[in-house]
Amino acid sequence: MSAPAIAYRQDRTPALEAIRALYAAAPLRRPIHDPARIRRMFEGSNVVISAYDGERLVGLLRGWTDFAFDGYVCDLAVHPAYQKAGVGRALLDRALALGEGVQWVLLASPIAKDYYAHVGWEKVENGWKLSRDGWNPGSMEAYQAQHAELAAKA
Q: What pTM, to 2 d.p., does this model score?
């Protein structure tokens, strides 16, 4: 299969239902059962880079940066049919190009933790986190089973 012709956009946030379907398919465990929360996640982000194959949303990076010193990648979601096609790397490269001298960090999903070393990111040992209250997605298997119908729409 030849590499798909992917179009990348930074000018608008994708449709909410397309985001939810991509998160379900990726699978990136996000609160897709709560569309209002997903909407707030994007309203509060100043970096949204999307990848399209035609009209189909196939990749998405969401994050924050001050465009001068610090940046944080909140989400990197790539549809399984487009993984290993360079979509994730292209999304990351576009984020890196947003500001010279910005140091980007992220908290990797357990299923993607090895990917970031593969694309040149350095593992950090000096990070800390305070777990969120409320929603707990459970196991990956349960999450995928619960959202299989939505994932099929991606």
A: 0.86
Backbone φ and ψ for 18, nearest 5 degrees, come out as: -70, -40
Q: Classify domain 7-147 at the CATH superfamily level.
A: Gcn5-related N-acetyltransferase (GNAT) (3.40.630.30)
Structure token digits, residue 55: 């009209």
Q: Give the CB-side neighbour count of residue 66, counting CA atoms within 13 A.
A: 6
Q: Is 90 exposed, middle or buried (0-12, 13-18, 19+ CB in 10 A)?
A: middle
Residue 69 has which token pair?
A: 């010193």
DSSP code per residue over 66-128: -SSSEEEEEEEEE-GGGTTTTHHHHHHHHHHTTSTTPEEEE---TTTHHHHHHTTPPP-SS--
Domain residue ranges in the chain = 7-147
Give the tens place of pLDDT for each residue, 36-65: 999 999 999 999 999 999 999 999 999 999
Q: In angstroms, rounded to a whole number, what is the distance separating the alpha carbons of residues 36 and 48?
A: 17
